[in-house]
Amino acid sequence: MTPSLTRNTGLGMAAALTGALAPAEASAHVKWFAPYIVDAAPAPITRTLTDPWFWTGIVLVLAFFIATRLVERTTTGEATLDAMDRATNPLWLRLDDFVRIVVAGFFVAIFSVGGIYLTPDLKTPAEWVSWLQLLIAAGIVSRKTMPLSAAGIIFLWVLALRDYDPFHLLDYLALGVAVAAYLVLESSNREDWRKHRFEVLRWGVAIALMWSSLEKFAYPEWFYPLVAEKPFLTFGIPRDMFIPMAGVAEFTMGFGLLATPLVRRLSALALLVIFITAVYPFGRVDLIGHALIMAIIIVIAVDHTRELHFWSWIRRALIGVPIGLTGALLIFVTAYWGLHAVFYGTDTQTMAEIRAEQGDMATHSYSSEHPHGPQVMATMRDGEEVPQTAPADLGDASVADAYAQSMMGMHEEMMAGLEHEDPDVAFVLGMIPHHQGAIDMARIQLAAGSDPENMQLARHIIAEQQQEIDAMRAWLDERGVEVPDS
Questions:
Q1: Residues 286, 417: one domain?
Q2: Which of 26, 169, 269, 412 is 20 to 30 Å from 277 at the Cα level?
Q3: What is the span of the domain harbouring residue 236?
Q4: Per residue of the chain (486 residues), what is the pLDDT tens digit?
């Protein structure tokens, strides 16, 4: 996550870069596992409220939180916190250095990856963005320039909000604002401000987790391709049981980060285990995308602070556990469903309705009003737009003939593009038909193949290759080069 900053500092830099805020062609917002239909209406909340697995998860979490609070009130709880303090004391004494190193390292990492804003999910063809990220990393070295780095982070989030779907970026935004706020508070000479620096990080991660967890209730269908591709993620639990309980776990652990010291530290440790175990199956780029949230979770686990600054009486009371969780659910559910209606209206179809009409791959289908991912570029068939994810129409042709025809078309367009006098342009003009050829082959596989692994590979190729085609077409467009038809 996304998981990933002050508005009034660095005005000079912001003014110098104001021109970059001019409207540009919006890109698709792509979650890390699949492109999806962003304007689909969330499933009715009654679907969740009538799900027994949702309530099973809620009961289990409430029991854990209440039991932990009971232990926390005893000498055993105090001893447990003291032991955690002793074990983490070396890092606690250098915790600000740890945060600054991780934040600076994160921006160096995304500078090295290139072509992204503040997470690998948010791509951009603008090369200057990477150099700004390097400047942000350099600014964190000194407390005097940390507010400028914070302003740079906010500026990049503004660009991301401009280019991508804002509603589905709110979970990312909470984390970005929290990191920016930390940099400002840490650089402040006012101790009454600085004492809240770790707290803003905690709130940022908690809000991001609670907001993003609602996708599992509002759009469980988005997770179906992921579960199908990586079935080990469910530990053998049936899909429709696993997804709502996973949503409960994510929301409640985010809520737990705002609770009393023992609850929040145990919640942080549980989250850290989950994020660490995700590194191997999803790879190093996913680790980069989650680096900030993982670092903040470590900060929460290490934080020795036991003072509660907001609503301390209700957070310490046992009755505060069900009241607080109920209040958080009401606030976030109302905001999520309400803001979606504000952004997209109330007459959109739910994912269940779309899938009933279009089939199981509707999470990847084309939306002309709200483009949403690398698989949305359409071809024309009989004058109508057809999503690239659709299997190829082989007609009476054999599979071999279909493959041969796709390769012949690719070869002719590649050679024509490579004749351009500018070697950079020639490379891009040659690569676009090369990638399109791979997409055409993948669509033939979807039409004629049957092996589940190959079918999944074909969908992956379509997604990745189309995303790169989009980036190359945007590069040509920026340079005034005629963009070839898809």
A1: no
A2: 169
A3: 11-344
A4: 433 322 232 323 232 322 333 333 333 333 443 456 677 889 999 999 999 999 999 999 999 999 999 999 999 999 999 999 999 999 999 999 999 999 999 999 989 888 888 877 778 888 999 999 999 999 999 999 999 999 999 999 888 888 877 777 787 788 889 999 999 999 999 998 999 999 999 999 999 999 999 999 998 887 877 777 677 778 888 888 999 999 999 999 999 999 999 999 999 999 999 888 877 776 776 777 788 899 999 999 999 998 877 777 777 788 889 999 999 999 999 999 999 998 888 888 787 776 666 554 444 433 333 333 333 333 433 334 444 455 555 565 677 777 777 777 778 788 888 888 889 989 988 898 888 888 888 888 888 887 877 887 887 788 788 878 888 888 888 888 876 665
Whether residues 190 and 51 share a domain: the answer is yes
Nearest to 349 by CA among 45, 40, 44: 40
Strand partners, 379: 386
Q: Tell me whether residue 370 is in a domain.
A: no
Q: Find the largest Cα–Cα distance for the chain.
A: 78
Domain identity same for 209 and 263: yes
Q: 340 and 384 share a domain? A: no
Judge whether 209 lies within some domain: yes
Task: Give domain status of residue 166, yes or no.
Answer: yes
Work out the burial of residue 398: count CB atoms within 10 Å of its CB; fewer than 13 is exposed, 13-18 middle, 19 or more buried: exposed
All residues at 6 or more sequence positions from 418 whose CB lies less than 8 Å from its CB, including other chains: 426, 427, 429, 430
Asked whether residue 373 is assigned to any structural domain, the reply reads no
| Domain stop point among 296, 325, 344 | 344
Shared domain check, 398 and 325: no
DSSP state of 385: E
Count of domains observed in the chain: 2
User: How far apart are alpha carbons 336 and 329 in whole angstroms?
Assistant: 10
Q: Which residue has the tokens 């084309």?
A: 366
Q: How far apart are CA 141 and CA 121, in angstroms?
A: 27
Rounded to two decimals, what is the model's pTM?
0.69
